[in-house]
Structure formats: C-alpha cells, structure tokens
Write a structure and sequence with these properties.
The structure is a single chain. The protein is 10% helix and 61% strand. It is mostly beta strands and 121 residues long. The protein has one domain: Protein of unknown function DUF3599 (Thrombin, subunit H, Beta Barrel), CATH 2.40.10. A six-stranded antiparallel beta barrel has the order 1-2-3-6-5-4. The radius of gyration is 17 Å and the shape is elongated. The termini are far apart.
Length: 121
C-alpha cells in the first residue's frame, strides 16, 4: 500500500518522537603512508544526531579471539529517515564506538533509517 505524501510525512514526524538519544556519526577518510600503505582517519559527519540504539538479542553469540571468548552482539541504530550515513562510517553513542555493518534502505514508505552496528574493539 502506498501512502500519500501527507500521510508519509505525518508518520515520519511521529517517528522522530521515538529518537530519545543522540550520537555522532563519523566518516572515514583514507590516506597513504610514506611506505605505500593506507591509514584511516575519522571526521565528524554530524554530532548531536537524534537516534535510538537497541541491542539485537537474536544475533548474539560468541567468538574465540586470542584464546578468550568474546560476546558477539549486534546493535540497531534508528535515525531520521533521510540521515546521511555510509557503511564505512562509525557511530559514537554514549561514549562507545560502533562500526556500521549494514544500512537497511530497501523498504517502501521509509519513516526511519535503520543501521546495523557492531561494537568497535
């Protein structure tokens, strides 16, 4: 079912009421080192961006890293429907840094942008 522009705008305005947190989105830039390698730096794409962050219990698990078990938790970040973000970006929320793993942008009548994250080590 396709919504009218007015109906879709009303839903988008309503969705903004459910973004109680704020985050910083940082975009990655790539540079070259003197020995021909690459280096990455991050600059703020935006700060104090309205959002909501939630853990995804269905995707929890463990991995072995350095002979230690580490929790593997995925997170979902909800943003304003037209917020700019890329899969090479990272997000800082409440002092924790997350890497973008996937952006869900394929559904119709989008009222919010959903971004799947993993915690940066």
């Amino acid at each position: 079912m396709s919504l009218s522009t007015g109906e879709l705008n009303q839903l988008r305005n309503d969705a903004e009421d459910y973004l109680p947190d704020s985050c910083t989105i940082q975009q990655r830039t790539t540079g070259r080192t003197s020995d021909g390698g690459f280096t990455f730096a991050y600059t703020n794409r935006g700060a104090a961006i309205a959002c909501r962050l939630a853990g995804l219990r269905s995707e929890q698990g463990e991995r072995i890293e350095g002979e230690q078990r580490r929790a593997l938790t995925r997170w979902i970040l909800t943003l304003h429907h037209d917020q700019t973000i890329a899969e090479t970006d990272r997000v800082i929320h409440d002092g924790a840094t997350f890497e973008v793993s996937h952006i869900e942008d394929t559904h119709s009548n989008r009222t919010a942008r959903r971004v799947y994250l993993r915690k940066a080590d």
